[in-house]
Amino acid sequence: MGSGAGSFIKFLLRNFDVLAWPVVSLVYPLHASVTAIETQSHADDKQWLTYWVLYSLLALFELTFAKLIEWIPIWSYLKLILTCWLVIPYFSGAAYVYEYFVRPVFVNPQSINIWYVPKKMGIFRKPDDVLTAAEKYIAENGPDAFEKILSRSDKSRRYKQHETMHGKEYQYQGNYKSF
């Protein structure tokens, strides 16, 4: 009997990463997420929503780079340590990663080109930017038309600001006529 228990303990220790990862990454977060849904606090909801976003990104990373990852012998241990850091609320790992790495990409999307190749400018192509569009509009319609558009935009912006400052919504109160 002694050798059976010893082999079982050896089996658990050798496969600790394989056995612990589902508990750490799925079972505990599922339980904590259900508990967070039932509470009135939004802080724990944010913690677990953030965790599930990062869990999804980790799963996508693993699926994408599976052939490369299988050559890293300690990947399962690294994944377990990373998941523990993300899951345990004391460390706030999920909030940290989301705030400094994920959120800037999704909330403020900016074109990040790590392989910079300058675009070729042909004779028929101009860069599409605001100044070029404004110059083209002025050339076609004249500066007075452009000034008129700017003043309409400014009036519209001021009107919307006034409406939101006073908490009133705009409602059309005229007669509805069909043409």
Task: Note down, in words, how this protein is organized.
- The protein is mainly α and 179 residues long.
- The protein has helices at residues 2-14, 16-38, 42-64, 66-69, 75-87, 93-107, 130-141, 143-166.
- It contains 8 helices and no strands.
- Helix 2 (16-38) runs antiparallel to helix 3 and helix 7 crosses helix 8.
- 7% of the residues are buried.
- Residues 169-174 have low confidence and may be disordered.
**C-alpha termini separation:** 93 Å
Total DSSP helices: 8
Question: What is the C-alpha radius of gyration, as a whole number of Å?
Answer: 29 Å
Number of strands: 0
Uncertain residue ranges: 169-174
Write down the oligomeric state: single chain
- Overall form: elongated
Helix content: over 70%
Mean pLDDT over all positions: 76
Q: How many strands, what sense, and barrel or not for the largest sheet?
A: none
Order of helices and strands: HHHHHHHH
Strand content: under 5%
Structural class: mainly alpha
